[in-house]
């Protein structure tokens, strides 16, 4: 576990992972995409042909993001990997479970529904209320909040959730995922019906691939099974990137965000760790205005998050 594997360009903390794109999830996605693309490149020409024209994306979730917010111990449940030397134990912290790397083939329509189920992580926000409103739905496990990298999208939390925590349909008319798009290598942006009809390869893990919970998962969708554990693929990616660039870039690419809510007096709140380290990280890396306003009975810091357009 103390074996050196590389160098990180910046800290990877998950204090903000539920409210903005996050480095601790981004690096997992980058590693998964790299490994699946490498696997495809090593296939025979006949096998490669099956993947032609199908972009490789990645689904990754925050495994340590405040637990279930149900005890004082949960406030310690955050990824805290510092900048600088990385060891294998840090890969294990970034990727908590002993899953193996797999890939599924999905349509753009299935991809959107996958994200709709993930968006159940958030409570519905009333844009006409000025009373404090809690953003995080703690009944939805954070390991089921998948971020799909390789596409861009916004989450409209003023809309009801389309699915419950088990991805069972509860509101067919709900539409939280907005502005979903894919940018082709030539710069062409694909949206709407064209994107819905596209085929994508999503790198993920065996738990998700075979789970049949999210739209686009299950045995019929599995197209690649690799022997590599996800954390081993992550460690190998960190080593390769460090060898080539001196460090592994841990910057989150910002491919998702919340849709703006144009209500000046809106009071949306979220919980995160109450610590000097968390406060410093938030102050440095926040993408929107946010201010600590309280501390709850479990020892979490409560932040007010500004979702108005001018808050960016």
Structural summary, described in words:
With 312 residues, the chain is of the alpha+beta class. It has one domain: 5'-Nucleotidase, C-terminal domain (5'-nucleotidase,  domain 2), CATH 3.90.780. It is built from 8 helices and 17 strands. It has a 5-stranded mixed β-sheet with strand order 8-3-12-6-13. A 4-stranded mixed β-sheet has the order 7-15-17-16. The longest helix is centred in the N-terminal third of the chain and has 19 residues. The radius of gyration is 19 Å and the shape is globular. The mean pLDDT is 97.
Summarize this structure briefly.
The protein is of the alpha+beta class and 312 residues long. The chain has eight helices and 17 strands. α3 packs across α7.
Write the layout of secondary structure elements.
Elements: E1 4-8, E2 12-13, H1 23-41, H2 45-49, E3 56-60, E4 80-81, E5 84-87, H3 88-94, E6 100-107, H4 108-118, E7 132-134, E8 147-149, E9 152-155, E10 177-183, E11 189-190, H5 192-197, E12 199-205, H6 206-209, E13 222-229, H7 230-245, E14 256-258, E15 267-273, H8 276-285, E16 290-295, E17 300-305
Parallel strand pairs: 3-12, 7-15, 9-14
Antiparallel strand pairs: 1-5, 2-4, 3-8, 6-12, 6-13, 9-10, 10-11, 15-17, 16-17
Architecture per CATH nomenclature, i.e. the level-2 architecture: Alpha-Beta Complex
Beginning-to-end CA distance, first to last residue: 39 Å
Q: Helical element count?
A: 8
Rounded to an integer in angstroms, the radius of gyration calculated over CA atoms is 19 Å
How many strands, which pairing sense, and closed or not: the largest β-sheet? 5 strands, mixed
Instruction: Indicate the overall shape.
Output: globular
